[in-house]
Every structure is written in structure tokens, then in C-alpha cells.
Amino acid sequence: MKIIDKYILKTFLITFTVVFVILFFIFILQSVWLLIGELAGKDLDAIMILKFLLFSMPRLVPLVLPLSILLASIMSFGDLSENYELAAMKSAGISLRRTLQPLFYLITIFSIAAFIFANSVIPYAEYKFINFRKNIAQSKPALAIAEGQFSDVGIYNIKVNKKSGENGENLTGITIHKKSDVGDGSRIIIKAKKGKLVSSEGSNTLQMILNDGNYYEDILPKNYEDRPKMPFVKSAFKKNIITIDISEFNKIDVDKENITNTNSMLTTSELQYTIDSLQKNYKVDVTAFTENMNQRVGLQKSTQAAVKIKKTKKKFNPNLLDYFNTKQQLDILNLSHSNLESVKYSIESSATEFKLKEVNINGHLSSLNDKFVIAFACFLMFFIGAPLGAIIRKGGLGLPVVFAMLIFISFHFANTFGKKLAEEGGLTPFLGAWMSSLVLTPLAILLTYRATNDIGLINMDVILAPIQQFIKKIVPQK
After folding, report:
1. Is the per-residue pLDDT at 77 higher than 70?
2. Which of 23, 207, 454, 465 could be 198's S-S partner, Cβ–Cβ 3.0 to 4.6 Å?
3. pTM confidence score
4. What are 178's strand-pairing partners?
5. Which of 134, 135, 125, 131 is nearest to 54 (CA)?
């Protein structure tokens, strides 16, 4: 390895290390700020908090690594260009393409390491993080009721506006949603002005004494036709006691791992196997639903006795109901309406179910593509940052940071927008995951071409020449 290659690698690695550490620290602080509600008030020791942060760190690498490469590339080549070191290399016969060669090999190593990290470390950390996070929320149910937000405690979702008292047992502005036993949401809502939590150490129950409140319950009619009327029951109370069984919560081990079905926890091989299974099950469900609908397209067999239509020489009447008496016509219309409502309800419920299955499949496909996107993003950010730094000829933390943030925000926005659009079926999961790369790849090619050919960022002659010609035409020459 030549001395010039060592010098370029050393300059880049020092800048990259400093930038990566600073950005990683900033993103960790942001994560702590977003998750502070889950850490505060849970009576957690320092080791549990450290575990919580440790498991959340790997998910930040896909954000920090490309941004660090982009910023380090702009700063490194901006410094080299600003100090005329690139000009000295060119005068010695070393082109910019040759200058980028050692860093290309380094970025290749980074890219491979990023793929391995995204395929092994991040799924494992995500698996540990989600389980640890869920168990923390359930390990202290009495303390899990936070102010100003809904907290999941047993079969209830509880929100309080304010907590007071030595242990936060006095509650004000209480809203409670009771989960339905059949898993179709919440049909019971309880609101109270004040309340109090009563519990004893080692007890398997938690009592909530409510004062001055109302009880609301949506009634589900037996007849489907009555459902649009949305009937409900309302009652008022001076005092109401809710008992919450927390026996299962007291048995929770914060190191227990029982959530395993999130796509972010899976490696590429596991994702491929899961996607194949989901797609096969989806096709089977669609086929079964289609066959079922084909059988239900006609009216159900009527219980009425067969009616014989006498042959007549009269002209055929297209209104078949005229061949039946009034009672038979009413029976036929009621039966038809019942069949149509049943088929309509079946189609609507199945459409919602199929939509959720499509979103689930698209989410798994996006996760599979994301593992390759992060590897490609390392190359993309390097071939944007290095030529841009050589063109703008500015190092340090001024202009390079502005350019880096604008480019990365565009990348992150396109990535988020593409994946969201893919989940909803507006794009294929492949295009959704790779949208950010497809948007910025032309920019990388353009900047690399202009930098290697010593062309500025903006060719002002292209803009000024037509203006000068226009001025010459309208202004008389002396």
C-alpha cells in the first residue's frame, strides 16, 4: 500500500470515527427521550436500564452508519480540496478516481459488515428489546399507569390526567377502556372525575376506587340490520370499585422471551421461509373464499313449496315476481335481502382480513429488502459525499453538515415514504424499500462524473450565457 493510500485512509477513518461516535450518542439521547416514559416510574435498577438501552442501540446503526459515511466523506475530501492537497495529487498524476480507490475497498468492507450486522445482530437485539420492553411494562402494573397517556394494565387500558399522593395513588380525570372478551376492541368505557389505587404488598389484586363517574357500553344487537343504529347503555355512579387481577403480572420475569413473530427479529433465511408460508396461506385463503362465494352467489334454497307456472299463450312477463302471490313475493324479497346482507358482510369482513394479511406480507418483504438497502446505502452515501466534498472545497463542520443533512433527510424521507406506500399496496415492496436508493443514485452518478472531470457543482455558463446573449440583443452596441 502506497503512502498516499495510507494517508487518505487515515484521514477518512479519523473523521469517520469521530462523526460516528457523536451521531450515535445524539441518536441514543433521542431514543432515551422518546422512551423516557417507559423507564421513569418503574422502580428499575441501573442494570435493567442499562440493558434496556443496550438492546435499543443496534437499531440505530442503519441510521447512523450511512449518515456518518456521508458526512465523513464530505468533510475529508472537503479538507483535502480546501488545503489544495487534491490539486497537488492531480499535478502528480493521481486522479480523483485513483484517490477514491482505497476508500472504495474500505466502504466495501463497511457494506459487508453492515449487511452481516443487519442480518444477525439487529434481529437478535430487536428480539431481546421488544420482550424486555413488554416485560418491564407489565412487571409493575401499579406504577405502569402514567399521566396523560393510556396504559395497558390487565384487561383495561387506563388513562389519568394527574397522579398525586406519596405513591401516586390519588388519580384525577380517569378514562378506562375495558377490552372485549372476543377480541374485537373495546365496547365498555368508564369515566370518573377522581379515583384511588388501593393495593397491598404481595397481593394479587389491585383495586381502583372511582368517584363521580359514568359508565358507557355499546350494545351489539343480534340482528345485523340494527347494528347501524349503534345502541348503547349509559349510567352514572357516585362510587365504583374495579378489581384488577395482577397475579400473572407478579409472575413475570423481565428476562423471559415470549414474543417471536415480529419481522424485525428475523434473519434473511427466516424471512424468506416466513414469506413463503404467508404467501401460500394467503393463496389458500383466497381460493377458499372464492369457492365459498361462488356457492353463495345464488339465493339459498327457499322453504316455500315449488310453484308451478302454467303455460299460457300470453306474452312473457320479464318481471318474474308477477307469477307469485303477494305473500310469496314478500318471502322471496326478504330472503333475497337477507342473502345480500349476508354476502355483503362476509365480503367486507374478508376484505379487511385479506388487507391485513397483505400488509403483513409486504412488511416482511420490506424487512428482507432493508437488509440489502443498508449495504447499498454505504456505497451510495460515499459516492455522493466524496465527490461533493471535492467540488465544494469546504471542510469542517459548516457547509458539509448542511449538505449532509439535506441529502440524508431526503434519503430518509424517500425511504419512509416508499415503505409506507408499499405496505398499503401502492408500490411493490421491492420498489418501496429501494425508492430512496433509486432517487439518489442519479445524484451520486452526476456528482462523481462532475468531480472526476473537474466540473463545478453548478455550471454557471449554462445559466449566464443565454442571459448575456439576450442582453446583447436588446441593448444596442456602441
Report:
1. yes
2. 207
3. 0.64
4. 156, 188
5. 125
